[in-house]
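Students often ask why inverse folding is considered easier than folding. One informal answer: many sequences map to the same fold, so there is more than one right answer. In these notes we will look at a single instance of the problem. The structure comes first.
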């Protein structure tokens, strides 16, 4: 089967990594795979795809003015590759694919989040009729697709993220210290990720808790990143924080190995890869009660701590309580490792192939 995957960009990120895993898995199974991205065709995920022998095309869409040229480039890729099926990922790629594809070519769209932006929901709803099938990353996202976007439930499938369990073996075996709270957050520095909530929560921890926190992730919103650093200075906690920037995925294992808590205080989230990675790495996890987290807690309720209320006081209490309960942290680690040991990307790839074959008739 010839499969064209389209995504907004190919820097390090949850959806981008998921596409990379699916594309590589399809290629290893003997399918012809090609990837097109609107921009950032030299990002970390693009480099991994190239190393796997998968061609990556840049559509050069860095703004609205570039849209007509991007549509032309995408149509040229389709004429050259002649795919049996096209699968688009993320809002902007979904929209571009719906404008560009000829009517007879099956189009699958991935929805990765319950979209809070009304303009995005409106455009999804306006153009969803062009979509042959919708792959949703969580049950809540599928409900959103049906109830707010207007997708037919019979044309929706939920496929959650996987995790490369063996890649985190070294982190699972790490001898972590317990005298100091060595916290970790792996997330882009954006408003969505709620890092301002975490900073305020950390500033409210009791004085008898010795703590240090690392933030790993790119800074696509410079204003937000500057505001976070200013907030840390204002709260008097800047000296306890390390802003590490983006790091290669293989280096992330070292950060997980050094951490004895991970927090993800996102305001909204489809299903964060970082949570699955931390569980596989043997790190106790605290996460806000976003849509994809509900699927994880339904399947493995003992594997992580859910902070139901996205306010600083709730996060302070959750951090304090979990840190003072080493037996509970150990139980979380055990449950998280057991859960992720059976959540392979190979299964995710198989489920994608089932949808592709159903939709294309291959």
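Output (designed amino acids):
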């Amino acid at each position: 089967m010839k499969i064209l995957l389209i995504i907004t960009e190919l820097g390090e990120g949850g959806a981008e990594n998921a596409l990379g895993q699916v594309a590589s898995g399809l290629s290893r199974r003997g399918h012809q795979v090609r990837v097109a991205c609107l921009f950032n065709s030299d990002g970390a995920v693009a480099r991994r795809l190239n190393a796997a022998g998968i061609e990556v095309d840049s559509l050069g869409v860095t703004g609205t003015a570039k849209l007509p040229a991007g549509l032309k480039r995408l149509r040229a890729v389709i004429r050259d590759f002649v795919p049996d099926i096209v699968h688009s990922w993320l809002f902007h790629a979904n929209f571009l694919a719906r404008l560009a594809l000829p009517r007879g070519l099956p189009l699958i769209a991935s929805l990765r989040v319950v979209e809070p932006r009304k303009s995005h929901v409106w455009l999804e709803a306006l153009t969803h009729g062009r979509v042959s099938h919708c792959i949703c990353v969580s049950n809540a996202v599928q409900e959103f697709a049906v109830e707010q976007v207007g997708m037919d439930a019979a044309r929706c499938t939920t496929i959650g993220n996987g995790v490369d369990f063996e890649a985190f073996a070294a982190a699972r075996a790490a001898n972590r210290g317990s005298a100091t709270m060595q916290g970790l957050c792996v997330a882009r520095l954006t408003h969505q990720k709620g890092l301002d909530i975490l900073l305020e929560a950390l500033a409210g921890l009791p004085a008898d808790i010795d703590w240090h926190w690392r933030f790993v992730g790119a800074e696509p919103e410079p204003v937000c990143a500057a505001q976070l650093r200013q907030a840390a200075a204002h709260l008097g906690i800047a000296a306890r924080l390390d802003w590490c920037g983006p790091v290669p995925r293989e280096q992330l294992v070292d950060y997980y190995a050094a951490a004895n808590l991970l927090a993800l205080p996102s305001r909204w989230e489809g299903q964060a890869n970082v949570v699955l990675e931390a569980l596989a790495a043997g790190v106790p996890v605290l996460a806000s009660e976003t849509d994809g987290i509900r699927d994880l807690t339904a399947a493995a309720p003992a594997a992580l701590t859910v902070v139901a209320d996205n306010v600083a006081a709730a996060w302070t209490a959750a951090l304090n309580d979990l840190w003072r309960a080493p037996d509970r942290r150990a139980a979380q680690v055990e449950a998280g490792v057991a859960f992720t040991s059976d959540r392979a990307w190979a299964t995710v790839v198989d489920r994608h192939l089932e949808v592709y074959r159903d939709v294309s008739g291959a």
